[in-house]
Amino acid sequence: MLRNALGKAFRFLGYTVQYGCIAHCAFEYLGGIVVCSGPSMEPTIQNSDIVFSESLSRHFYCIRKGDIVIVKSPNDPKSNICKRVIGLEGDKVCTSNPSDFLKSHSYVPKGHVWLEGDNLRNSTDSRCYGPVPYGLIRGRICLKIVFSTKMNGTIFV
Amino acid sequence: MAQAQGLGRRYIKAFFKGFFVAVPVTVTFLDRVACVARVEGASMQVFLEISFVYQEIKRCLFTDNSKPSLNPGGREASDVVLLNHWSIRNYDVQRGDIVSLVSSVSFWRSIPFATYTWCLNVVCLFLLRSPRNPEQKIIKRVIALEGDIIKTIGYKKKYVKVPHGHIWVEGDHHGHSFDSNAFGPVSLGLLHARATHILWPPQRWQKLQPMLPPERKPLHREQE
């Protein structure tokens, strides 16, 4: 009786570990579904939109200018931020605010990227905390999942 | 004939079942729990004296003061360290810990500072490493945490207050080290693992204790 129960418990534990590991590998090396919150990427990504991010581009170093990426926050490693890549290493970017009269430019250092939100008025991005190291990038957003009353569809962002 | 076919099919089924269990579990273990790596480079060497006799005396008399450095033997005998991912899952580091970080500078040729190459590797890691731009890991010692004010050696600012969510890392061998004195404070998100033990060579088997060099103590600590 007890042996039966123990056997079942161990089998359950085994399956949990196995599926947990498969899930980890999938999220880390392939991609996963992410829920975005915040207004900094409007109108491209609204608050509480569901998007699909893939991690292959990060591992193969295929992140391009204009991609929307999920990045670990430089100031808080436990939270993620979602911004658009404006400049790669070596690119010249404008670091001043849009309202400034005199524009200042700088070059993105090696191994870093420059991120900006689409909603420039309401976004804390590289204009606040500077260029972000490439190693913090977690994935690239490739799809946005949109549900409508007429049909289920996805649009490419 | 039919028996051999049945056996072959069973074998293939067992192989795939084992593959899909073993590979994800191993990959997850090496990513999240612990892995082993070989240290290359000289930036974690304590500065070696020229005379061998002096070295011996120093080792006998000053063993309690000597810093647990990595790679004192240079290129001939690289240390192999155990990297613990599990202990830094909450980004909980102390001053004096030896940690490995994802390098924020991409490079193609190896440069003389401490990097490490994977010792025990898994299929995925081999496949996904791009030869054009290898994401190298560097091993350094944590000198200051967020909020500390420290005096730098050769950085563009003489005194630096480590920003929120960042740490200041330095190699033990200051002259030969590509560390925060070159690229500034490092974001905690780039933290990869903590080096807890030296596994090889056997005569250097030891547990690495967090030890802050007294001359590198921060001038002001925000958190104790």
UniProtKB/TrEMBL annotation, chain A:
Subcellular compartments: Mitochondrion inner membrane
Any one biological process term the GO annotation gives: protein processing involved in protein targeting to mitochondrion
Keywords: Hydrolase, Membrane, Mitochondrion, Mitochondrion inner membrane, Protease
CDD domains: S26_SPase_I
Enzyme Commission (EC) number: 3.4.21.-
Catalytic residues identified in the record: 40, 83
SUPFAM superfamilies linked to this entry: LexA/Signal peptidase
Record protein name field: Mitochondrial inner membrane protease subunit
Organism: Taeniopygia guttata (Zebra finch)
